[in-house]
Each structure stands twice: as structure tokens, then as C-alpha cells.
Write a structure and sequence with these properties.
The chain is mainly alpha-helical. It has helices at about 10-15, 20-40, 45-75. It is built from 3 helices and no strands.
Amino acid sequence: MRQTPKPAPRLVLWWEALDTWKQLALSFPVFAILTFLLNFGLFNQPILRSVFYGAFEGAVLAGLLAVATRTESGRR
């Protein structure tokens, strides 16, 4: 017996409706700042290295989020 899945929250539907480039443009700065703060504060990296790591890791995480969004929206 299969249950009907609950509908996705409105925020998730809005996010999935965005174009991929808009998702990247919104998520990259957030991930870049978070990973910069993580590298600078928690890992005690020098400031320039933290900026580089923040930009690199932010881009990777934003790309992974875009791929995951497309995969999950394709399931529905």
C-alpha cells in the first residue's frame, strides 16, 4: 500500500521554480561567506587563504545544491 506523498513546502517549490543560474547566484554568496567564516574562525586560517577557500568551497557547494535541486525536482 503506497501513501500519497505530502506536497513540498512553498519555499521548496519556489526554489525549484528558479532557473539554475538564479539558484547559483543566490546560493554562492551565502555559501562563500559561511565557508569563509568557518575557515577563518574555526580552522584559524590566514585571511587571504580563508577568502580563497571560501570562494572555492562556496562555488562547489552552490553547484552541488543546484544538482541536488534538479535531481529532487525530477523525482516529483
